[in-house]
Amino acid sequence: MRVVGIIVSLLIEIVSAGFGGGGLKDLSASSSGKQADAVTGREIYSNTCIRCHGIDGKGAMGIRLVPKPADLTSPGIQNRLDASLFKRIHDGKPNTAMGAWSTALSDDEIWDVLAFVRTLKQESGP
Ligand code: HEC
């Protein structure tokens, strides 16, 4: 009986070593495994996006672009999927002043800035 007990506990150890070592992945994390961070995103936004999109995301004052920078608080933007907005920030929008940020920002930084853009939604008023 004691031998069976030892074998069982050995088996349990082997099984838990096989599955315990980080086999499970957090699917909500970005491709690199890092969670998007809106606080870092706000810093990136202030440095790179604010001059066109403004402090509140509704467009910088006195900017004259055709078309105007998108209102990031609007439902038209906020109702879009993360992947679609990520691609826009990454690749830019042709024939507008919205450039491709993939050369200046890493994928993680784009996810961070997108997380911040998502926080602008609540400030769009009632
Ligand atoms: C030089 C000015 C400028 C800068 C800097 C800029 N944008 Fe834009 N952005 C624009 C313009 C212009 C548009 C296009 C508006 C339109 O198509 O009507 C736009 C559009 C967008 C859109 C909507 C894209 C779409 O598919 O309609 C998003 C999201 C966006 N910008 C996010 C950002 C973020 C995040 C940054 C900083 C990393 C940034 N922008 C920096 C000018 C700028």
How is this structure best described in words?
With 126 residues, the protein is an all-alpha fold. The chain has a single domain, classed as Cytochrome Bc1 Complex, Chain D, domain 2 (Orthogonal Bundle), CATH 1.10.760.10. The chain is 48% helix and 0% strand. The chain contains 6 helices and no strands. The termini are far apart. About 13% of the residues have low confidence. The site of heme C has 21 residues, from α3, α5 and α6.
Which structural category do the helix and sheet elements fall into?
mainly alpha
The CATH C-level name is Mainly Alpha
Oligomer: single chain
The H-and-E topology, N to C, reads as HHHHHH
How confident is the prediction overall: mean pLDDT?
83
List how many beta strands DSSP finds: 0
Q: Could you say what the CATH architecture is? A: Orthogonal Bundle
Please state the CA-atom Rg, rounded to the nearest Å: 23 Å
The helix content is 40-55%
Count the DSSP helices: 6
Q: What is the approximate shape?
A: elongated
Separation of termini? 71 Å
